[in-house]
Model the fold of this input.
Amino acid sequence: MVKWLCTVCNIYVYDEETGDPQTSIDKGTKVQDFPDSWRCPVCGATKEKLVPVTQEEYWQKARAYTDFTGKKEEITSILVGVDNPQTVPEFRQEYGKPLGLRGIGQGLTYLANFSALSKYRLKNRLISKHADPVIETTFLGKKISMPVLGAPMSGLSFVSNITEEDFAYNILEGCKVAGTIGYTGNTSRDYEMKHPAIMALKKVNGHGVNIFKPQSQEVLIDLIKQSEEEKAVAVGVDIDGAGSVNFALAGKPVFRKTIDELRELKNATSLPFIVKGVMCVEDALAAAEAGADVIGVSNHGGRVLDSGLGVADVLPGIASVLRDTDNGKRIIITADGGVRTGFDVVKMLALGADFVLVGRPLAREAVSSGVEGVRRILDYLRTDIRIAMIMTSCNTLEDINEGILGKES
Done:
Protein backbone atom coordinates (compact mmCIF):
# COMPACT_ATOMS: atom_id res chain seq x y z
CA MET A 1 0.00 0.00 0.00
CA VAL A 2 1.02 3.62 -0.61
CA LYS A 3 2.84 5.78 1.94
CA TRP A 4 2.36 9.55 2.02
CA LEU A 5 4.16 12.68 3.24
CA CYS A 6 2.77 16.14 4.03
CA THR A 7 4.64 18.57 1.78
CA VAL A 8 3.88 21.54 4.04
CA CYS A 9 5.46 20.49 7.36
CA ASN A 10 7.60 17.70 5.85
CA ILE A 11 6.97 15.72 9.05
CA TYR A 12 3.57 14.07 8.91
CA VAL A 13 3.57 10.64 7.25
CA TYR A 14 0.69 8.30 6.52
CA ASP A 15 0.75 4.60 5.73
CA GLU A 16 -2.42 3.25 4.12
CA GLU A 17 -1.68 -0.17 5.57
CA THR A 18 -1.71 0.96 9.21
CA GLY A 19 -3.96 4.03 9.06
CA ASP A 20 -3.46 6.82 11.59
CA PRO A 21 -5.18 6.71 15.01
CA GLN A 22 -3.96 10.25 15.70
CA THR A 23 -6.33 11.61 13.05
CA SER A 24 -8.96 8.84 13.36
CA ILE A 25 -8.15 7.30 9.98
CA ASP A 26 -8.85 3.55 9.77
CA LYS A 27 -6.48 0.98 8.29
CA GLY A 28 -6.66 0.70 4.53
CA THR A 29 -8.12 4.17 4.00
CA LYS A 30 -6.83 5.88 0.87
CA VAL A 31 -5.92 9.56 1.03
CA GLN A 32 -8.57 10.48 -1.53
CA ASP A 33 -11.14 9.01 0.84
CA PHE A 34 -10.13 11.21 3.79
CA PRO A 35 -12.99 13.49 4.90
CA ASP A 36 -12.78 17.04 3.55
CA SER A 37 -12.45 18.24 7.13
CA TRP A 38 -9.18 16.32 7.62
CA ARG A 39 -6.16 18.40 8.55
CA CYS A 40 -2.51 17.46 9.07
CA PRO A 41 -2.03 17.22 12.87
CA VAL A 42 1.38 18.87 12.61
CA CYS A 43 0.72 21.92 10.45
CA GLY A 44 -2.99 22.01 9.58
CA ALA A 45 -2.57 21.35 5.84
CA THR A 46 -5.38 19.76 3.83
CA LYS A 47 -5.22 16.27 2.30
CA GLU A 48 -4.30 17.75 -1.10
CA LYS A 49 -0.85 18.52 0.33
CA LEU A 50 -0.04 14.81 0.83
CA VAL A 51 2.18 13.18 -1.80
CA PRO A 52 3.30 9.55 -2.26
CA VAL A 53 6.82 8.77 -1.01
CA THR A 54 9.17 5.85 -1.23
CA GLN A 55 9.48 3.27 1.52
CA GLU A 56 12.92 4.64 2.40
CA GLU A 57 11.74 8.25 2.71
CA TYR A 58 8.72 7.16 4.74
CA TRP A 59 10.89 5.46 7.34
CA GLN A 60 13.20 8.46 7.49
CA LYS A 61 10.23 10.62 8.53
CA ALA A 62 8.31 8.05 10.56
CA ARG A 63 10.42 8.47 13.70
CA ALA A 64 9.90 12.24 13.78
CA TYR A 65 6.16 11.83 13.46
CA THR A 66 6.09 9.10 16.10
CA ASP A 67 7.96 11.41 18.48
CA PHE A 68 5.52 14.19 17.64
CA THR A 69 2.43 12.12 18.43
CA GLY A 70 4.02 10.72 21.57
CA LYS A 71 4.45 14.21 22.96
CA LYS A 72 0.71 14.76 22.66
CA GLU A 73 -0.60 11.66 24.34
CA GLU A 74 -1.29 13.59 27.55
CA ILE A 75 -2.94 16.47 25.70
CA THR A 76 -6.03 14.88 24.21
CA SER A 77 -8.45 17.71 24.88
CA ILE A 78 -6.80 20.41 22.76
CA LEU A 79 -6.25 20.88 19.08
CA VAL A 80 -2.71 20.26 17.89
CA GLY A 81 -0.96 22.61 15.54
CA VAL A 82 1.92 25.03 15.23
CA ASP A 83 0.07 27.95 16.82
CA ASN A 84 -1.13 26.13 19.94
CA PRO A 85 1.11 27.13 22.88
CA GLN A 86 0.57 23.83 24.69
CA THR A 87 1.96 21.65 21.91
CA VAL A 88 5.53 21.20 20.80
CA PRO A 89 5.80 20.46 17.07
CA GLU A 90 8.85 18.50 16.01
CA PHE A 91 10.09 21.36 13.84
CA ARG A 92 10.53 23.74 16.79
CA GLN A 93 14.11 24.86 17.36
CA GLU A 94 16.35 22.75 19.57
CA TYR A 95 18.32 24.58 22.22
CA GLY A 96 21.08 26.61 20.58
CA LYS A 97 19.48 26.33 17.14
CA PRO A 98 17.66 29.18 15.30
CA LEU A 99 14.20 29.19 13.71
CA GLY A 100 11.27 28.03 15.77
CA LEU A 101 7.64 28.99 15.35
CA ARG A 102 7.13 28.39 19.05
CA GLY A 103 9.71 30.85 20.36
CA ILE A 104 13.37 31.05 21.28
CA GLY A 105 14.88 29.16 24.22
CA GLN A 106 12.23 27.73 26.52
CA GLY A 107 9.54 29.65 24.69
CA LEU A 108 8.73 31.69 27.80
CA THR A 109 8.17 34.95 25.93
CA TYR A 110 5.98 33.18 23.39
CA LEU A 111 3.88 31.74 26.20
CA ALA A 112 3.89 35.08 28.05
CA ASN A 113 1.97 36.60 25.14
CA PHE A 114 -0.85 34.14 25.73
CA SER A 115 -0.85 34.41 29.51
CA ALA A 116 -0.79 38.22 29.36
CA LEU A 117 -3.86 38.29 27.11
CA SER A 118 -5.63 35.57 29.08
CA LYS A 119 -5.52 37.69 32.25
CA TYR A 120 -8.14 39.91 30.67
CA ARG A 121 -11.80 39.03 30.19
CA LEU A 122 -14.44 40.81 28.15
CA LYS A 123 -17.30 42.25 30.20
CA ASN A 124 -20.84 41.48 29.04
CA ARG A 125 -22.87 44.68 28.82
CA LEU A 126 -26.13 44.32 26.95
CA ILE A 127 -28.74 46.79 28.21
CA SER A 128 -28.18 49.53 25.68
CA LYS A 129 -29.53 50.69 22.33
CA HIS A 130 -28.70 48.12 19.69
CA ALA A 131 -26.81 49.01 16.54
CA ASP A 132 -24.77 46.95 14.14
CA PRO A 133 -21.12 47.66 15.03
CA VAL A 134 -19.08 49.76 12.62
CA ILE A 135 -15.88 47.76 12.19
CA GLU A 136 -14.50 49.41 9.07
CA THR A 137 -11.73 51.96 9.54
CA THR A 138 -8.73 53.49 7.76
CA PHE A 139 -5.03 52.72 8.09
CA LEU A 140 -2.67 55.42 6.83
CA GLY A 141 -5.44 56.78 4.61
CA LYS A 142 -6.45 53.37 3.21
CA LYS A 143 -9.95 52.08 3.92
CA ILE A 144 -9.91 48.62 5.52
CA SER A 145 -12.63 46.21 6.62
CA MET A 146 -11.46 45.92 10.23
CA PRO A 147 -8.62 47.05 12.52
CA VAL A 148 -6.64 43.89 11.76
CA LEU A 149 -3.48 43.70 9.65
CA GLY A 150 -1.34 40.78 8.53
CA ALA A 151 1.85 40.67 10.61
CA PRO A 152 5.29 40.65 8.94
CA MET A 153 6.61 37.09 8.68
CA SER A 154 9.26 35.26 6.69
CA GLY A 155 11.43 32.16 6.86
CA LEU A 156 8.62 29.72 6.11
CA SER A 157 10.69 28.40 3.21
CA PHE A 158 12.99 26.86 5.83
CA VAL A 159 10.24 24.58 7.15
CA SER A 160 7.93 24.09 4.17
CA ASN A 161 7.90 23.77 0.41
CA ILE A 162 6.87 27.36 -0.26
CA THR A 163 9.14 30.12 -1.58
CA GLU A 164 9.58 33.37 0.32
CA GLU A 165 8.01 35.35 -2.52
CA ASP A 166 4.98 33.08 -2.76
CA PHE A 167 4.50 33.17 1.01
CA ALA A 168 4.66 36.97 1.07
CA TYR A 169 2.26 37.17 -1.88
CA ASN A 170 -0.25 34.84 -0.18
CA ILE A 171 -0.25 37.05 2.90
CA LEU A 172 -0.55 40.33 0.97
CA GLU A 173 -3.18 39.11 -1.50
CA GLY A 174 -5.13 37.23 1.19
CA CYS A 175 -5.31 40.39 3.28
CA LYS A 176 -6.27 42.44 0.23
CA VAL A 177 -9.10 40.08 -0.68
CA ALA A 178 -10.32 40.25 2.94
CA GLY A 179 -10.40 44.02 2.70
CA THR A 180 -7.36 44.80 4.81
CA ILE A 181 -3.58 45.19 4.47
CA GLY A 182 -0.73 42.76 5.03
CA TYR A 183 2.86 43.32 6.07
CA THR A 184 5.82 41.38 4.70
CA GLY A 185 8.83 40.14 6.65
CA ASN A 186 12.52 40.12 5.81
CA THR A 187 14.02 36.71 5.03
CA SER A 188 17.65 35.88 5.70
CA ARG A 189 17.78 33.80 2.52
CA ASP A 190 19.86 35.07 -0.40
CA TYR A 191 17.98 36.25 -3.47
CA GLU A 192 19.14 36.78 -7.03
CA MET A 193 17.23 39.87 -8.10
CA LYS A 194 14.86 41.97 -6.02
CA HIS A 195 13.99 41.16 -2.44
CA PRO A 196 11.16 38.56 -2.46
CA ALA A 197 8.94 40.77 -0.29
CA ILE A 198 9.30 43.61 -2.78
CA MET A 199 8.55 41.25 -5.66
CA ALA A 200 5.39 40.15 -3.84
CA LEU A 201 4.48 43.79 -3.20
CA LYS A 202 4.75 44.47 -6.93
CA LYS A 203 2.31 41.62 -7.68
CA VAL A 204 -0.35 43.26 -5.49
CA ASN A 205 0.27 46.73 -6.94
CA GLY A 206 1.75 48.11 -3.74
CA HIS A 207 -1.10 47.03 -1.47
CA GLY A 208 1.10 46.12 1.48
CA VAL A 209 3.74 47.18 3.97
CA ASN A 210 7.38 46.11 3.83
CA ILE A 211 9.17 45.67 7.17
CA PHE A 212 12.92 45.05 7.13
CA LYS A 213 15.44 43.77 9.65
CA PRO A 214 17.74 46.43 11.17
CA GLN A 215 20.66 45.90 8.83
CA SER A 216 23.12 48.64 7.86
CA GLN A 217 21.70 52.06 7.00
CA GLU A 218 22.87 51.67 3.42
CA VAL A 219 21.07 48.36 2.95
CA LEU A 220 17.90 49.62 4.62
CA ILE A 221 17.71 52.85 2.65
CA ASP A 222 18.09 50.91 -0.59
CA LEU A 223 15.29 48.50 0.38
CA ILE A 224 13.08 51.39 1.50
CA LYS A 225 13.62 53.16 -1.85
CA GLN A 226 12.68 49.97 -3.73
CA SER A 227 9.49 49.67 -1.68
CA GLU A 228 8.70 53.28 -2.43
CA GLU A 229 9.08 52.60 -6.16
CA GLU A 230 6.49 49.84 -5.87
CA LYS A 231 4.09 52.25 -4.13
CA ALA A 232 3.99 50.49 -0.76
CA VAL A 233 1.47 51.69 1.80
CA ALA A 234 4.32 52.14 4.29
CA VAL A 235 7.80 50.89 5.15
CA GLY A 236 9.54 50.19 8.40
CA VAL A 237 12.11 48.39 10.48
CA ASP A 238 11.57 45.81 13.22
CA ILE A 239 14.15 46.92 15.74
CA ASP A 240 13.89 43.65 17.68
CA GLY A 241 15.36 41.96 14.62
CA ALA A 242 18.70 43.00 16.14
CA GLY A 243 18.55 39.64 17.92
CA SER A 244 17.90 37.58 14.79
CA VAL A 245 19.92 34.36 14.94
CA ASN A 246 19.01 33.50 11.35
CA PHE A 247 20.49 36.71 9.97
CA ALA A 248 23.66 36.23 12.03
CA LEU A 249 24.08 32.69 10.72
CA ALA A 250 23.53 33.93 7.17
CA GLY A 251 26.37 36.42 7.54
CA LYS A 252 24.03 39.40 7.34
CA PRO A 253 24.72 41.54 10.40
CA VAL A 254 21.87 43.28 12.17
CA PHE A 255 22.19 46.15 14.62
CA ARG A 256 20.46 48.13 17.32
CA LYS A 257 19.51 51.58 16.03
CA THR A 258 19.93 55.05 17.53
CA ILE A 259 17.31 57.80 17.39
CA ASP A 260 19.39 59.57 14.75
CA GLU A 261 19.63 56.42 12.63
CA LEU A 262 15.88 55.89 12.79
CA ARG A 263 15.33 59.53 11.90
CA GLU A 264 17.63 59.09 8.90
CA LEU A 265 15.51 56.17 7.71
CA LYS A 266 12.32 58.16 8.26
CA ASN A 267 13.72 61.08 6.24
CA ALA A 268 14.85 58.74 3.43
CA THR A 269 11.27 58.19 2.28
CA SER A 270 8.04 60.02 1.64
CA LEU A 271 6.13 56.94 2.84
CA PRO A 272 4.82 56.56 6.39
CA PHE A 273 7.57 55.05 8.55
CA ILE A 274 7.03 52.24 11.05
CA VAL A 275 9.18 51.28 14.03
CA LYS A 276 8.14 47.81 15.13
CA GLY A 277 9.41 45.75 18.05
CA VAL A 278 8.85 48.27 20.85
CA MET A 279 8.38 46.68 24.29
CA CYS A 280 9.18 49.47 26.74
CA VAL A 281 8.28 53.10 27.36
CA GLU A 282 11.85 54.24 26.69
CA ASP A 283 11.86 52.80 23.16
CA ALA A 284 8.37 54.13 22.49
CA LEU A 285 9.43 57.67 23.34
CA ALA A 286 12.64 57.29 21.33
CA ALA A 287 10.71 56.07 18.29
CA ALA A 288 8.34 59.01 18.64
CA GLU A 289 11.30 61.39 18.83
CA ALA A 290 12.69 59.83 15.64
CA GLY A 291 9.45 60.74 13.90
CA ALA A 292 7.83 57.32 13.55
CA ASP A 293 4.33 57.44 12.10
CA VAL A 294 3.47 54.00 13.45
CA ILE A 295 4.88 52.28 16.54
CA GLY A 296 4.45 48.53 16.74
CA VAL A 297 4.31 47.05 20.22
CA SER A 298 5.68 43.57 19.63
CA ASN A 299 8.23 41.05 20.90
CA HIS A 300 8.70 39.31 17.55
CA GLY A 301 6.39 36.50 18.60
CA GLY A 302 8.80 35.52 21.34
CA ARG A 303 11.41 34.47 18.77
CA VAL A 304 14.30 36.78 19.66
CA LEU A 305 14.40 37.07 23.48
CA ASP A 306 13.47 34.43 26.02
CA SER A 307 11.99 35.32 29.43
CA GLY A 308 10.44 38.54 28.13
CA LEU A 309 7.13 40.13 29.04
CA GLY A 310 3.91 39.57 27.10
CA VAL A 311 2.72 42.34 24.79
CA ALA A 312 -0.55 42.81 26.70
CA ASP A 313 1.51 43.41 29.85
CA VAL A 314 3.31 46.46 28.42
CA LEU A 315 0.81 47.82 25.90
CA PRO A 316 -1.31 49.96 28.29
CA GLY A 317 1.74 51.76 29.71
CA ILE A 318 3.22 52.44 26.28
CA ALA A 319 -0.10 53.66 24.89
CA SER A 320 -0.62 55.96 27.86
CA VAL A 321 2.79 57.58 27.52
CA LEU A 322 2.50 58.06 23.76
CA ARG A 323 -0.90 59.66 24.09
CA ASP A 324 0.55 62.12 26.59
CA THR A 325 3.30 63.37 24.26
CA ASP A 326 2.78 66.58 22.30
CA ASN A 327 2.53 64.74 18.99
CA GLY A 328 1.40 61.39 20.36
CA LYS A 329 -2.10 61.55 18.96
CA ARG A 330 -0.82 61.36 15.41
CA ILE A 331 1.25 58.25 16.17
CA ILE A 332 -0.55 55.04 15.32
CA ILE A 333 -0.07 52.14 17.73
CA THR A 334 -0.20 48.54 16.55
CA ALA A 335 0.15 45.45 18.72
CA ASP A 336 0.67 41.75 18.12
CA GLY A 337 1.52 38.69 20.17
CA GLY A 338 -0.65 35.70 21.04
CA VAL A 339 -3.63 36.96 19.02
CA ARG A 340 -5.65 34.00 17.77
CA THR A 341 -9.27 35.20 17.67
CA GLY A 342 -11.27 38.35 17.09
CA PHE A 343 -11.94 38.41 20.83
CA ASP A 344 -8.18 38.74 21.36
CA VAL A 345 -8.20 41.59 18.84
CA VAL A 346 -10.84 43.47 20.82
CA LYS A 347 -8.82 43.00 24.03
CA MET A 348 -5.72 44.48 22.37
CA LEU A 349 -7.77 47.44 21.12
CA ALA A 350 -9.14 47.98 24.61
CA LEU A 351 -5.60 47.98 26.00
CA GLY A 352 -4.53 50.82 23.73
CA ALA A 353 -3.79 49.52 20.24
CA ASP A 354 -5.25 51.27 17.19
CA PHE A 355 -4.68 48.21 15.02
CA VAL A 356 -3.83 44.59 15.75
CA LEU A 357 -1.43 42.44 13.75
CA VAL A 358 -2.09 38.72 13.36
CA GLY A 359 0.76 36.37 12.50
CA ARG A 360 0.91 32.61 13.02
CA PRO A 361 -2.72 31.77 12.11
CA LEU A 362 -2.20 33.52 8.76
CA ALA A 363 1.20 31.89 8.25
CA ARG A 364 -0.27 28.44 8.69
CA GLU A 365 -2.98 29.11 6.12
CA ALA A 366 -0.70 30.96 3.70
CA VAL A 367 1.45 27.83 3.44
CA SER A 368 -1.26 25.16 3.43
CA SER A 369 -4.16 26.91 1.66
CA GLY A 370 -2.71 30.04 0.05
CA VAL A 371 -4.63 33.25 -0.50
CA GLU A 372 -8.00 31.65 0.19
CA GLY A 373 -6.83 30.30 3.56
CA VAL A 374 -5.59 33.72 4.66
CA ARG A 375 -8.88 35.31 3.63
CA ARG A 376 -10.85 32.65 5.50
CA ILE A 377 -9.01 33.25 8.79
CA LEU A 378 -9.47 37.00 8.48
CA ASP A 379 -13.18 36.53 7.86
CA TYR A 380 -13.39 34.45 11.06
CA LEU A 381 -11.63 37.22 12.97
CA ARG A 382 -14.01 39.85 11.65
CA THR A 383 -17.01 37.78 12.74
CA ASP A 384 -15.54 37.43 16.23
CA ILE A 385 -14.88 41.17 16.46
CA ARG A 386 -18.48 41.93 15.55
CA ILE A 387 -19.80 39.50 18.18
CA ALA A 388 -17.46 40.90 20.85
CA MET A 389 -18.56 44.45 20.09
CA ILE A 390 -22.24 43.55 20.28
CA MET A 391 -21.78 41.72 23.58
CA THR A 392 -19.85 44.62 25.15
CA SER A 393 -22.13 47.40 23.80
CA CYS A 394 -19.45 48.86 21.55
CA ASN A 395 -21.11 50.30 18.45
CA THR A 396 -17.92 51.85 17.09
CA LEU A 397 -14.22 51.11 17.42
CA GLU A 398 -13.89 54.28 19.49
CA ASP A 399 -16.19 52.71 22.09
CA ILE A 400 -13.64 49.97 22.76
CA ASN A 401 -11.63 50.87 25.85
CA GLU A 402 -10.41 49.38 29.15
CA GLY A 403 -13.90 49.78 30.56
CA ILE A 404 -15.00 46.65 28.68
CA LEU A 405 -12.32 44.53 30.33
CA GLY A 406 -12.13 42.63 33.56
CA LYS A 407 -8.86 41.24 34.88
CA GLU A 408 -8.10 38.08 36.80
CA SER A 409 -6.80 38.71 40.29
